[in-house]
Amino acid sequence: GKYRVVSTKPMPGTRWINLLIEQDCRVEICTQKKTILSVEDIIALIGDKCDGVIGQLTEDWGETLFAALSRAGGTAFSNMAVGYNNVDVNAANKYGVAVGNTPGVLTETTAELAASLSLAAARRIVEADEFMRAGLYDGWLPHLFVGNLLKGQTVGVIGAGRIGSAYARMMVEGFKMNLIYYDLYQATRLEKFVTGYGQFLKANGEQPVTWRRAATMDEVLQEADVISLHPVLDKTTYHLINKERLATMKKEAILVNCSRGPVIDEVALVEHLKQNPMFRVGLDVFEDERYMKPGLADMKNAIVVPHIASASKWTREGMATLAALNVLGKIKGYPVWGDPNRVEPFLNENAPPPA
Ligand code: GLV
Ligand code: GLV
User: Fold this and answer.
1) 3-105+312-337: which CATH topology?
2) pLDDT at residue 237 above 80?
């Protein structure tokens, strides 16, 4: 192979590797056993000659790594993730490295996990499962694990981009929930969908579903029964959900986070869960991914899973393939992937234009 492409992790499927090999690349996959590579580990991996790297969201892609990649002759980096808060895109641009991410292929898979967490929280699935396994079930009782009926309640979506809109669609259509959403951009297609579905229900003599685009995020927090967070993580969304905002939510609300951990002040959340036993959360992400804040693991009203929202076979193989195509596109100078200095060079039909 003429080009050397490094992947910091083994990735699912073989298509991504074959694509690179077919296009004159030598692919090197890091075999280190440790889960999260340090900046030093990655510098060693990049070595003296490296044309492109496929990296992971657990890695800190800043000035140091882009300088190292540039010194090794590299021009391409792709995160195997849609989120890229771990990547300093300005630093990459400074060193002439194009940055890609992997949107699109994980939209439905991620929205399905958010929906799963919503249902699991509403119906207390995890608590009930633990109860069964503990041998505590002694026969049916009228008040055993009574939860929330979603039908007719309001689902709130904060960040109605690709994933948020897909989640909203699932909850509205699947459970006949009304929608309130907050986003800087109008989710036109989502609005049309809910309107059409409402008309369908009405024509069938059923209560139609409704939607509303909230003027402020606080309206969503105050009015919704189930709230799912789908913003990008940046300075403006850090601790978006804090002590004060939690206090404005319904006492029996359900909060789901499949975006990024730091969007929620997790210490404040643990305190809120303690004070409000009927308030429930489903969390896929954590402020400090590997360490839940003290007390969270003890809360019966919290469901916690280890950042698996995009973890379906089809999606993970798709993410790996897109990451390879991003790197390849830049190295080979294919025009089809658009401006390589822009994150989300393709599959971004719903995304707002870059600022
Ligand atoms: C996963 O969290 C992703 O951003 O793809
Ligand atoms: C519950 O199992 C019922 O039959 O109502």
Assistant:
1) Rossmann fold (3.40.50)
2) yes
